[in-house]
Amino acid sequence: MCGIIGYTGSKQVRDILIDGLQKLEYRGYDSAGIALHNGSMRVIKSPGKVHDLVEILPPALDSNTGIAHTRWATHGGATELNAHPHTSSTGKLVLVHNGIIENSAQIEGFLKNKGYSFISETDTEILLNLIEYEYLANGKDIKSALVKTFSLVTGSYALAIIEEDKPGRITLCRKDSPLILGIDKTGFYVASDIYAVSEYAGHFIFPGNNDIIIVENKSKITVYDVHGNEKEPEIKEFNAAKKKPDRCGYEHFMKKEIFEQPDILSDLVGSEYKIEGHLSSGKNFNDILHSISRITIIGCGTSWHAGLVARYIIEKYARIPVIVEYASEYRYRDPVINNHDLVISLSQSGETADTIAANRLAADAGAITMGILNVRNSSLDRETDFQVFLEAGDEIGVASTKAYTAQIIQLSRLASIIAALRGNEAKSQEILDALSQISSNLRYFLEKNSNITDLAQKYASSSNFLFLGRGLNFPTALEGALKLKEISYIHAEGYPGAEMKHGPIALIDIDFPTMVILSDNENRTKMISNIKEIKARGGKVIAIINEGDTEAEQIVDDVIKMPSVPDIISPVLSVVPLQLFAYYVALLRGCNVDQPRNLAKSVTVE
Ligand code: M6R
Predict the structure, then answer these.
(1) Percent of the chain with pLDDT over 70
(2) Among 44-48, 63-67, 445-449, which stretch is predicted with the lowest mean pLDDT?
(3) pLDDT for position 238
(4) 253-436 topology per CATH
(5) What band does 461 get if pLDDT is binned at 50, 70 and 90?
(6) For 447-588, which CATH class?
(7) Among 35, 117, 404, 539, whose CB has the most other CB atoms within 10 angstroms?
(8) 301: CA distance to ligand 1 center in Å?
């Protein structure tokens, strides 16, 4: 994953790099480092977060050229030696890398035969020394070195390189990992995303796969294609300035983001359903909806769960077949795709590597692609035919909360549009009527969520948790389990209620609690039977129930009461107590709620 930032120009680089690293920390926070060129090259790095690096940096560092990196470890632990920037064997090149070099073992063998040795455990150091080997063999010509390297490596990379002999120059290139070049009057900014530099730059170049861009002397840009032939730079104007994220008085971003949901969802439900983008054929989105025979939703993690909820809604109300698949599986299983498929990439960040690759696969096979995204100007925004935005504001907590509920809303609204287009106005309106009830009910629940902290206290010392739901709320069970495990490190599994008898019930004992989502009417009776099966085996049950469900209240150990709403929107409501439960349990266990261990907000490597 990792975040890359760089600058060369007339400004001092230190604060630009630190500011950029802080903005890119969502891509990884295992270690951070910077490299400066001020006549000679200097590298400073540290394990841990960006603030750990800042603590060891001298307050003033005189330099106008530098590159920096925040890492999510792939090859080798989170140590200072493995941290980027890496320096090549002769010290001629310093590089930062986002991606994975898949044939690094083979390249390592080749370089060892040439006398190279390595000090880190990273694929990046191997890649760098291959570039250096070619650099020295090609008269220190970085462009020729990269063209040769491209033909020798497999994998993904976004690279920024500085050369000892070329002060004031940065070379960048990418393949399947994002990297942009920002431009202002003072010089050039290299970054993993536009927002790391949008405060400074108004013009951007989005390099294609294996383009090589050399920026130097404050204003000179040269762009080469994969073969090393010079090409015209394509400069685009963007005003993408963003406010700095603010916790607004909340202790954690995650809590703020949970409590923002009523406002965000009510704004979303009340807004026009805006479909951006176009097809070169000129066909509009309504034409497309008439011609498609199937919808495939791809995503990862929480986004995949939102896709699962949407499948129930779209199939039930719009009567069109829906497939929901992990992007990481879809991209490698040779799926049957044709030009009557609408493939929806569901992604908060728009930067998830597997989702981007799966989207490319679908587009190449002729499908119409659509991104349902939170982050504008992200890779998936650029790469999909059509886009719908979640308008949820920055989601900073690693655990996705408001993006999940906004995804369900935007997909439900799509279901309503398709139902209407297919002539079923009543079904279409039913969805809209239900959506209009979400915010007030959510607000009411959040204002009186009195017992969740008590329940967190009671169950925080559990080592395991089972989450059960059925139908529309089976994905809620998956999502509740994911929230708990990712921020509190409690092992949790989500299952459809009926599947419990096929194995997981063997786990149940007095120390293995189950959270049951019982807040939709469609599956209530069946779930009551499942609860009885757990109770008969001595298991503890917490149930999310509708207010007034005294029957359920009597058979379980604890309840979380939700206002009764139409079934179709119950997944949006029932997930919120699960988000809060995970949050409070994580706090009680002393976990870092916003930046849990081993994770990153965006998973930008496969
Ligand atoms: O940005 P995306 O929606 O594509 O991210 C997908 C997953 O990485 C993400 O939902 C992840 O599972 C979250 N940490 C879950 O809270």
Answers:
(1) 100
(2) 445-449
(3) 83
(4) Rossmann fold (3.40.50)
(5) very high
(6) alpha beta
(7) 404
(8) 5
Question: What confidence score (pLDDT) does residue 330 get?
Answer: 97
Q: What pLDDT does residue 602 have?
A: 86
- Nearest-angstrom CA–CA distance, 410 and 471: 19
Mean local confidence (pLDDT), 159-178:
96
95 vs 93: CA distance, rounded Å? 7
Task: Report whether residue 348 contacts ligand 1, using a CB cutoff of 6 Å.
Answer: yes
Ligand 1 close to Cβ of residue 523 (< 6 A): no
Same CATH topology for 253-436 and 447-588? yes
CB 348 within 8 A of CB 390: yes
Number of H helices, E strands in the chain: 20, 26
**Length of the chain, please?**
606
| Band (216; pLDDT cuts 50, 70, 90) | very high
* Least-confidence region, from 69-83, 247-261, 478-492, 555-569: 69-83
Q: 3-237 has which CATH code?
A: 3.60.20.10
DSSP one-letter string for 56-106 = HS-S----SEEEEEEE--SSS-S-TTTSSSEE-TTSSEEEEEEEEETTHHH
Alpha-carbon dihedral sign for residues 71, 76, 78, 84:
negative
561: which strand partners?
A: 545
Could you tell me the residue ranges of all domains in the chain? 3-237, 253-436, 447-588
**604 with 158: CB under 8 angstroms?**
no
Task: Give per-residue pLDDT as tens, 56-80.
Answer: 999 888 999 999 999 988 888 889 9
89 contact partners, CB below 8 Å, separation of at least 6: 116, 117, 129, 132
Contact predicate 544/517, CB 8 Å: yes
* 185 classed as catalytic: no
The residues, any chain, with a CB within 8 Å of residue 473's CB and separated by 6 or more, are 517, 519, 520, 523, 570, 571, 574
Element (H, E) at 40: strand 40-47
DSSP one-letter code for 244: P
Give Cβ neighbours of residue 23 (< 8 Å, ≥ 6 apart).
3, 195, 196
In three-state secondary structure terms, 146 is helix
Residue 478 identity (one-letter amino acid): L
Rounded-to-integer distance, Cα 379 and Cα 348, Å: 12
- In this prediction, residue 73 carries a pLDDT of 85
173 is catalytic: no
The pair of structure tokens assigned to 501 is 């008898």
Beta-bridged to residue 180, according to DSSP, are: 191
- Across the range 358-372, mean pLDDT stands at 97
DSSP 8-state class, residue 548: T
According to the model, what pLDDT value does residue 548 have?
93
Could you tell me the distance, in angstroms and rounded to a whole number, from the CA of residue 90 to the centre of ligand 1?
40
Largest alpha-carbon pair distance within the chain?
Answer: 81
pLDDT for the residue 231: 96
Does the Cβ of 355 fall within 6 Å of ligand 1?
Answer: yes
Contact 347, 408 (CB under 8 A): no
DSSP category for residue 476:
H
